[in-house]
Structure formats: structure tokens, C-alpha cells
Amino acid sequence: QVQLVESGGGLVQAGGSLRLSCEASGIIFSSKTMSWYRQAPGKQRDLVADITRVGSTNYADSVKGRFTISRDNAKNTVYLQMNSLKPEDTARYYCNTGVTIGLRSYQIWGQGTQVTVSS
Question: Which of 8, 78, 97, 103 has its Cα between 20 and 30 A from that of 66?
């Protein structure tokens, strides 16, 4: 069974930092691109950052220079270090990856972790 479990969210003041973690099970983690998405109330779920199996990274323009995605293949865990947080970063943050079973591809999501940034 494929499972993604996020942790590390919370309430922080503007300018503060948080580190999110996502532990994966049931997949060959080292072979997967891993992504972080976020969704604020009433808005669509947007990509924040992703990291390929070889460590190449990609960021949304809104978080470049403030957020850093990384992975530890020995721990089957992907991280999102968030610095200089802004109130507009308030959202539920989700970990994501894709799996292929037979001829079908599926998107796997964690349950999410809430990040709230106060002004």
C-alpha cells in the first residue's frame, strides 16, 4: 500500500520558518519525483516545488529564494524548508508522487499538513 504522511505544519509569524516532512512507504522512493503542493481555502491546489530522483529541483515563482525542497532516500523522506514565510503562504500543504500499476498511472496524495502564517 502506497502511503505519504506529512508532518511539520503549524502556526508561525510572518518572517518565520517551518520545515515540512513527508515520509513515503510502499514505493521505491529513490526512483520517484516527489512534489509539494498547497491549497488555500477557495483556491486550486498549486505546485510549490518538486525534486527528481537525481535531485533536480523546480519551484513556483512565488517561493523561489525562500523555500528549499530536499530528499533523504535512506529515510524515504522529502522535506520542504520554508523561510521568510508570508501570510500568503497560509495553506494546507500536500505531498505528492505518481505510481504506475499495469497500464494505468495514479497520483498519490498525503493527508496534508496545515501551515498558517500570521501577520
Answer: 97
- What pLDDT is attached to residue 76? 97
What is the tens place of the pLDDT at every residue in 35-77?
A: 999 999 999 999 999 999 999 999 999 999 999 999 999 999 9
Query: Is beta strand 46-51 parallel, antiparallel or unpaired with respect to 18-25?
Result: unpaired
CA–CA separation, 25 vs 115, rounded Å? 23
Q: Which three cell numbers, joined as nine digits, stand for 17?
A: 520558518
C-alpha cell at 93: 500543504
- Residue 19 burial (C-beta neighbours within 10 Å; 0-12, 13-18, 19+): middle
Distance CA(66)–CA(59), nearest Å, equals 10
- Contact between residue 49 and residue 36 where contact means Cβ atoms under 8 Å apart: yes
Q: Report how far residue 70's alpha carbon sits from residue 46's, in angstroms, rounded to the nearest whole number.
A: 19
